[in-house]
Amino acid sequence: MHAPECRELLQCLTLQDPACRAAMEWLGSLAQVAVDDSIAGLALELAEQLHGAVGVELRQAAALRPDLIVVLLREPQEELQSLMDLLEPVASSTAG
Q1: Reduced to 3 DSSP states, what percent helix, strand and coil does the chain have, rounded to the nearest 5?
Q2: Domain range spanning residue 11?
Q3: Which of 23, 44, 49, 84 makes the best surface tag, with the fewest CB within 10 Å?
Q4: How many domains does the chain have?
Q5: Which tens digit of pLDDT belongs to each residue from 37-73?
Q6: CA-to-CA separations, 51 to 34, 57, 96, in angstroms, rounded
């Protein structure tokens, strides 16, 4: 969410948790209307209006620590690759 060049790829993830899936859909919609880096603020505003698990997920996504956001913005592809490696370990590393 915080690295615009990774948003499209993150939308391709198949999330099992319904609240996470709904929050990701909301974030995708917000990303289309966000100006500059306003997506976190928009997500927090929306989270206040949504009750339950989806609001919690949006709040957590938007309230990332500033030092983590700096890392995500500095090296977005590397951070995305780390996430993908964590979610789907390479078969060769598990074989054998």
Answers
A1: 75, 0, 25
A2: 4-91
A3: 49
A4: 1
A5: 778 888 989 999 988 999 998 888 887 777 777 777 7
A6: 22, 10, 46
